Amino acid sequence: MNTQTMSPEEIRTAGLAALKRELGIVGMVRFLQQFEMGHGD
Q1: What is the pLDDT of residues 8-19, one digit of tens each?
Q2: What's the pTM?
Q3: SS3 content of the chain, % helix, strand, coil (to 5)
């Protein structure tokens, strides 16, 4: 896989697939929740 020639959408899709494969669906969601945007100041 050559990430230099992949579009941002292809990289995002491959990244989510890797997270799901390695962590399972629950682990993937928990990982992604760490980067959720907060509210307020």
Answers
A1: 999 999 999 999
A2: 0.74
A3: 65, 0, 35
